[in-house]
């Protein structure tokens, strides 16, 4: 049996196992809208920990993280810096959001916004921004799966087929089982990718340099620019710091995070998860090691695409057996598919409930809403797959672009939770101006001082909200709702 066939066989077995677990998780609750979306609001600590952790361990983690440490060196630590702030988000926002969701029947972020501001158009705007930001995020997972299959099988499974296989497996169990399928498959896949990440992160430096410490000693002698800021490729403190801020505040605004808050069985569960959540960030450390190991390994022949450094290290440099390569591919696919499942599920729910619900599905029954959500999973996943076929650039840059857009929801969300004096017209104007400004700075103009464009757009957003609050008179159409805490 050829090496490629061994790798393909191990991976296909893994995909079948994940599909079986996901389909088996379908229960009676999955047939109702609340069950399909929020798991009946009784998800406990362990499953919720792995569901939320899947947002870190994605194709971004297995491919983008080592890719950035290989390309930039020390600036890649921005990933650990912003993840250290995520537990604060869960602790501060999670219990409050979960309580409101249980009391008022919220299933999406847009539900909370529309209800608080008494404005369906504002909920639709939040939902629209969420879907637009989620699709590129989902594209990362499918593109990552395609890259993994193509490289690990030496082209026997091409990029388009590898991405398609991952897309079909994820779409099938999310279509069938909703959040229940996501929870149980994330538990399985979480354990798989944690073991694989630490094994590779320690084994590769040991094989090539005699250990992690010796690897960094050699880097200090031969390529010290990778161990200091601004790194080897000129990422200054400005971009580093603003990337941390955008990722931290933007991470708190993701629609799938709010939906997981709604699914928790209690606020106490969410606070427990926030305590253990940093363990996931700690598990990105070995993936950073792999990127640093690649700096010396490919010093003479730099890689054309930094996202492939993990694959090239495993297959071409460390010379692992096909059995290890197959397990590596399965672990990396676990990362991509677990996050992809979360994103496909959330994007479909937001599209149907927040965008289509007040318009074309205004009078739809619950059964029709569940059906439309299931089919939207397939439609949005297909759209992300087609975008992945366009061969997008750096996975990290795609993710940072998505964060820059989603962070524009920050003022309206904080207003709904903690600042009831903010009016709907103010936050709507801020979100529109901030989103437009971000897209222009990211794709048309250059961001001033080399900062992440999302920070400038956020400042513009806040300025518009403040000016509108101060100078635009509130009439009977723009009066805010009463505080959501009552």
UniProtKB/TrEMBL annotation:
The chain crosses the membrane at residues 6-23, 43-63, 75-94, 122-149, 155-175, 187-205, 237-258, 279-299, 323-352, 372-390, 396-418, 425-445, 451-468. The keyword Transferase does not apply. Keywords: Membrane, Symport, Transmembrane, Transmembrane helix, Transport. CDD domains: SLC5sbd (cd10322). The keyword Transmembrane helix applies. Pfam families: SSF. Gene3D superfamilies: Sodium/glucose cotransporter. It is a multi-pass membrane protein. InterPro entries: Na/Glc_symporter_sf (IPR038377), Na/solute_symporter (IPR001734), Sodium:Solute_Symporter (IPR050277). It is found in: Membrane. It comes from the Bacteria. Belongs to the sodium:solute symporter (SSF) (TC 2.A.21) family. This is Sodium:solute symporter family protein. It comes from Halomonas marinisediminis.
């Amino acid at each position: 049996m050829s090496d490629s066939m061994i790798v393909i066989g191990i991976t296909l077995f893994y995909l079948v196992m994940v599909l079986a677990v996901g389909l088996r998780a379908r229960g009676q609750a999955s047939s109702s809208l609340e069950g399909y979306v929020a798991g009946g609001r009784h998800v406990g600590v362990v499953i919720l920990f792995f569901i939320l952790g899947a947002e870190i361990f994605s194709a971004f983690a297995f491919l983008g993280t080592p890719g950035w440490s290989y390309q930039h060196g020390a600036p890649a630590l921005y990933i650990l810096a912003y993840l250290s702030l995520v537990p604060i988000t869960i602790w501060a926002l999670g219990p409050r959001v979960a309580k409101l969701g249980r009391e008022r029947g919220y299933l999406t972020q847009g539900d909370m916004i529309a209800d608080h501001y008494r404005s369906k158009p504002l909920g639709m705007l939040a939902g629209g921004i969420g879907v637009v930001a989620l699709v590129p995020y989902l594209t990362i997972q499918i593109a990552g799966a395609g890259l993994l299959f193509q490289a690990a099988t030496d082209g026997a499974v091409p990029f388009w087929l590898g991405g398609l296989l991952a897309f079909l497996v994820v779409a099938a169990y999310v279509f069938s089982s909703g959040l229940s399928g996501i929870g149980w498959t994330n538990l399985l896949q979480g354990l798989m990718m944690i073991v694989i990440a630490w094994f590779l992160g320690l084994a590769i430096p040991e094989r090539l340099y005699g250990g992690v410490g010796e690897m960094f000693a050699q880097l200090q002698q031969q390529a010290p620019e990778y161990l200091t800021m601004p790194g080897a490729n000129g990422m200054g403190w400005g971009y580093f710091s603003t990337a941390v801020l955008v990722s931290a505040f933007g991470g708190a605004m993701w629609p799938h995070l709010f939906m997981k808050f709604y699914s928790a069985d209690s606020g106490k569960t969410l606070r427990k998860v926030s305590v253990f959540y940093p363990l996931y960030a700690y598990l990105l450390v070995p993936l950073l090691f792999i990127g640093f190991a690649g700096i010396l390994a490919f010093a003479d022949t730099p890689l054309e695409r930094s996202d492939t450094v993990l694959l090239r290290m495993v297959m071409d440099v460390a010379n692992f057996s096909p059995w290890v390569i197959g397990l590596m591919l399965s672990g990396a696919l676990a990362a991509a598919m677990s996050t992809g499942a979360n994103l496909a599920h959330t994007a479909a729910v937001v599209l149907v409930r927040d965008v289509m619900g007040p318009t074309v599905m205004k009078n739809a029954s619950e059964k029709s809403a569940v059906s439309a959500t299931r089919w939207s999973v397939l439609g949005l996943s297909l759209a992300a797959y087609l975008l992945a076929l366009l061969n997008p650039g750096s996975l990290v840059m795609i993710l940072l672009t998505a964060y820059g857009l989603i962070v524009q929801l920050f003022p309206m969300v904080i207003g709904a939770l903690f600042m009831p004096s903010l009016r709907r017209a103010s936050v709507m104007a801020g979100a529109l101006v901030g989103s437009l400004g971000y897209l222009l700075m990211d794709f048309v103009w250059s961001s001033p001082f080399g900062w992440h464009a999302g920070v400038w757009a956020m400042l513009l957003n806040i300025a518009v909200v403040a000016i509108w609050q101060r100078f635009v008179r509130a009439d009977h159409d723009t009066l805010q709702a009463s505080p959501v805490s009552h």
